[in-house]
Design brief:
42% of the residues lie in helices and 22% in strands. The protein is α/β, with parallel strands linked by helices. β3, α5 and β4 form a beta-alpha-beta unit. α1 packs across α2 and α2 packs across α3.
């Protein structure tokens, strides 16, 4: 069907240019190639559409009626091309974004006014979730998550922000239950866990030349870092959270940092997308904005 559609467009061009040779020059094809497509189209419709004249070509009666139909197809084609070309100008449309809950609440939403001021024809559709999302099946343009959560080998991750996780607890919890003296002591304390990424509950550290590994256990499991953060603030236990989530509360004294020499590295934030090929402008400018915004902060 695509071959016939292409032949219809060639037919329109030949009629409007007035000759096979003029149409071939306009389309960058050889005259024989254009003639072949016209013959195939005539075979398809079962009628002679053109006959040659000294001046070029002329339509048959059947060809004249068929031309009107082909002209309508050509108009739709040009309309579609003009529409898609418009996206190569100002980025526009709905940008569907999935983001981890904590990053979305404490970082991304604060950055969106700047982005939307730069690109007022884009609309952001944001879902905050710490579950794994399938970009294509769920029709997300991008997902913002931790680099360690990239499990789809066909997806592409672009790091946008360095991140570390640190240990903390509320002063009320530490007053009631004491403060761990060594990293191994954490096994004897109520540790707040996450349910969405099992490996994140294995807390490892190298302090003073000694390697530790503690499997966090306790009476609370949250499905997002934000839930764990709120649990830590309420005095439920010890949490390991991204520094951008807890920095303000540590500075205010609402949380106390444990083992200041400890930080879990390699917890960088990345934006994940399906392919580099033919990226829509709205996605491309969003990726560039995120990288520039969070790498400078």
């Amino acid at each position: 069907m695509m071959d016939v559609s292409s032949q219809m467009l060639v037919y329109v061009k030949v009629v409007e240019m007035g000759s096979i040779s003029a149409a071939s020059r306009s389309s960058g094809q050889t005259p024989s190639a254009v003639s072949k497509q016209i013959r195939h189209l005539e075979d398809h419709v079962g009628h002679r559409l053109l006959h040659r004249t000294k001046a070029g070509v002329a339509m048959t009666d059947e060809g004249r009626e068929y031309y009107e139909k082909c002209r309508a197809v050509a108009d739709k084609f040009l309309e579609a091309e003009a529409h898609i070309s418009s996206f190569n100008g100002n980025p526009k449309g709905v940008l569907s974004v999935a983001s981890s809950v904590a990053f979305g609440k404490y970082q991304l939403i604060n950055a969106l006014p700047e982005f939307l001021k730069l690109y007022p024809e884009i609309t952001i559709s944001l879902e905050l979730t710490d579950r794994q999302v399938d970009l294509e099946d769920e029709s997300f343009d991008v997902a913002i998550n931790f680099s360690e959560q990239l499990i789809n080998p066909n997806a592409i991750a672009r790091k946008i922000m360095k991140n570390e996780r640190i240990l903390c607890a509320s002063p009320a919890f530490l007053e009631a239950y004491g403060t761990p003296k060594t990293f191994s002591d954490l096994a004897n304390f109520n540790c707040l866990r996450t349910s969405n990424f099992v490996g994140r509950n294995a807390w490892e550290a190298e302090l003073d030349g000694i390697e530790y590994k503690v499997i966090a256990t306790g009476n609370f499991v949250g499905n997002s870092a934000d839930a764990v953060f709120k649990a830590a603030l309420s005095g439920l236990g010890i949490a390991r959270l991204s520094s951008y989530v807890v920095a303000d509360k540590i500075a205010s004294g609402d949380l106390t940092r444990l083992f200041p020499a400890y930080a879990q590295k390699h917890a960088d934030v990345a934006v994940i997308f399906a392919s580099k090929r033919n990226l829509a402008p709205k996605i491309r400018v969003f990726l560039d904005f995120l990288a520039e915004r969070f790498q400078r902060s």
